[in-house]
Amino acid sequence: MRAPVTLAIILSFSTLAHAQQVEKCCGTSSSTFLLGSPAYARHTQCLYAPGELTGAVVGQIHRLYYRYGNSGVALGNTLGNITISMVQTNATSFTGVNFLTGLQTVFQADSLTIAPGVSGDWFNFNLDALFNFDPSLSLVVDIRWETSANSAFGTMSVGNTTGRKIMSPDPSSPTGEAWNTLQDIGFDLAIGSGIAPAVFSNAALFPNPAEQQASLTFPNALTEPATLTVLDPVGRSVLEKVLAAGSSGATLDLRTLQAGAYLLVMQDASGRRATRRLVRQ
Fold first, then answer.
1. pTM for the full predicted model
2. Fewer beta carbons below 10 Å: N end or C end of the chain?
3. Dihedral, CA atoms, 75, 78, 79, 83, nearest 10 degrees?
């Protein structure tokens, strides 16, 4: 069940060909199979192998970039109920047509508007949650959306990339169809500060969305104290919990919170921070 929150996000765009820190570029074909065609791509997963993302270093992904294609870009587009998730894997290609599971949601909005643009330019948007990126692993970017105002909207892609993209017109289907194109992509990293503790990044947060309470379970016990803080949409702290060293998890009482989207922040005693999206329904 989706939380009763309406988010309208308008994407910014850049006329610089290489505005982002990390990129996989540049395709010469235009594809409507990512952010525009309900007949093909309401759910996609693209896999980017190690070594092909220029500028890649260890850090936290906080902003994504895509490139305007050759069709429909002068009109822009509006997508309804969009979710973007990420995961990393040792695999360098998909072995079949089953969508990968166990991904981290990094962006979610009821309505996302892409401004009109010029073919070949980049547009970008900030993520709701930081994603810990390891350049030695493949990056899988998962995009799901339900409606598209402009079914001809295109984004640039690279051809002859068998095993690197799975698509489906059904966002709820566990399987898709293999395609031999791979979207141009870029992203920005937070480097050298605020690198999230792995124990928090890999923690299980369930249920999410939640009604009365949510449980956070760590894969390993904390080696030092930490603080959990829940921030409302304007950045105010609405709930705080101190965790002792050795804690293996925490339970958050959400009954005093209004329905909506929140940011769950963990900060350890060393000052390292990590964020997760939490929804109270």
1. 0.66
2. N
3. 110
